[in-house]
């Protein structure tokens, strides 16, 4: 199976700290690389993580607050400088088009034509990303500026069984034809795909940043193998979370529990919390969610969970 992992480039919120850079998350999905919310310092963090501009095939921006987007100019200029040959699609809230234009051409540089803007908008589900091995959808969140979360879904597939293929006499080009057509005739007998393969559930990744609790966050995370979600505050600052339309770790855990998530990754921590208090984020989320929880740290690599077993 191809490598599927999340590389954490930054985990702070509005103000970076000595240990936590501004936001930045790189999802490696086989030969695809999705960069989420590149804040300041993303280009350097990519270097430290061993990532190149050529690894990026798509960028997803949730909203145009600086800690989620001020790294865009550097990343895009690096894509141009390194002469990345493939298209790099960039999804962002269409309501922030003026900010996109400013960031896209923040300074003078030798531009590139490979960057393809994909503004998202509306109050419902916005589908993008038909070119990748997964579908990408965006849903609006509840924040102080237009903000969208993203959901990547791999279609369900099949895992071929060499023994069963041989037993049914399916060989060579007939294997791909069976996979494509669902049933074929071999030596005068019809062979169905289910006789030679087992269902392979597709994987789901969800990315939810700055937002208050809302149904859209739950819908984005529904059945996700991995949910990356902001948890800016602890319970003691719940009033601030509601006032500024952010989440506490407990709220993030509640969303994960309602959505049936498998792995919950907490990030976007307020700079107010010292290192010795970070365990409280996991503890408070765990009071709502009984699955696996990871508190993200800069330059962590978090593997996607193994596929679910077919029901």
From TrEMBL:
The keyword Nucleotide-binding does not apply. Keywords: Endonuclease, Hydrolase, Metal-binding, Nuclease, tRNA processing, Zinc. It catalyses: Endonucleolytic cleavage of RNA, removing extra 3' nucleotides from tRNA precursor, generating 3' termini of tRNAs. A 3'-hydroxy group is left at the tRNA terminus and a 5'-phosphoryl group is left at the trailer molecule. Zn(2+) 1 binds at residues 63, 65, 143, 210. InterPro entries: Metallo-B-lactamas (IPR001279), RibonucZ/Hydroxyglut_hydro (IPR036866), RNase_Z/BN (IPR013471). Binds 2 Zn(2+) ions. Belongs to the RNase Z family. Zn(2+) 2 binds at residues 67-68, 210, 268. Gene3D superfamilies: Ribonuclease Z/Hydroxyacylglutathione hydrolase-like. It comes from the Bacteria. This is Ribonuclease Z. GO terms for molecular function: 3'-tRNA processing endoribonuclease activity. Its EC number is 3.1.26.11. It is an enzyme of class 3 (hydrolase). The keyword Hydrolase applies. It comes from Nocardiopsis alba. Its cofactor is Zn(2+). The active site is at 67 (proton acceptor). Homodimer. Zinc phosphodiesterase, which displays some tRNA 3'-processing endonuclease activity. Probably involved in tRNA maturation, by removing a 3'-trailer from precursor tRNA. Residues 19-106, 201-268 form the Metallo-beta-lactamase domain.
